[in-house]
Amino acid sequence: MEKELRTAVSPAGLNLRRLLPLAALALVALVLWSCAPVQQTVGHMRRDAWSLEEPHSLIVKFMRFDYQIQPVGDVAGVKGWAYLDTSKVPAWARWVDSLVLTVYLSDPEGQVMAQDTRSFLPREASADEGVAFEFSLRPEQWGQRPLFVTFGYRVVLTEGRDVKGGKETFFASEDAITR
Question: d(Cα 35, Cα 107) in Å, to the nearest integer?
């Protein structure tokens, strides 16, 4: 009976000393899983073949990206203009409240090798006035396989700059997914 008093028992009658090693093992597994590198893919997105110093235009669902890739040592600079396709958004959406652009470098299967993200200030929603961007890509290794470039975006459009109250919003996004 004395031995029974020394064994920790939960209110549900479970032997807590036997569960402790299992809980520690679960904690170690959780920590290792959370430290594993996150793999992203852009295989579901429209991509262009990687080529240096040639002008390109990539049209995605709500935007067009006119860009050029310029090598600078072991870094690739991606420079250009992003244009909102206002014909695909509601007529009342006249103000870009939030805009985030990302450039992705990927392998033929769409696995992301490098990326760079920029946020832009609010502005009028215009098809004619593009947003200038500059990105830098530095993959861990370039490799010998063909490379591809694509752009992601998150844009929030509203009725106007200072609209109060029942403000309408339109959200569009295309980004890499995590596996």
Answer: 23
Place of tokens 């209110």: 11
Spatial distance between the Cα atoms of 133 and 115, rounded to a whole number of angstroms: 14
N-term to C-term CA, the chain: 53
Exposed/middle/buried for residue 123 (C-beta within 10 Å: 0-12, 13-18, 19+)? middle
Kindly list the distances between the CA atom of residue 172 and the CA atoms of 42, 53, 77, 153, 163, in Å, as whole numbers in the listed order.
17, 30, 26, 8, 20
- CA count, 13 A, side-chain hemisphere, 153: 26
Residue that the structure tokens 């396709």 belong to: 85
63-105 pLDDT, tens digit per residue, is: 999 999 998 887 889 999 999 999 999 999 999 999 999 999 9
Strand, coil or helix: 40: strand
Q: What are phi and psi of 93, to 5 degrees?
A: -80, 90
How much of the chain exceeds pLDDT 90, in percent?
Answer: 60
Which of 150, 136, 143, 120 minimizes the C-alpha distance to 56?
A: 150
Report which secondary-structure segment, H or E, holds 99.
strand 95-106
Q: What is the pTM of this model?
A: 0.76
Three-state DSSP at 32 gives helix
Question: Which CATH code for domain 40-178?
Answer: 2.60.40
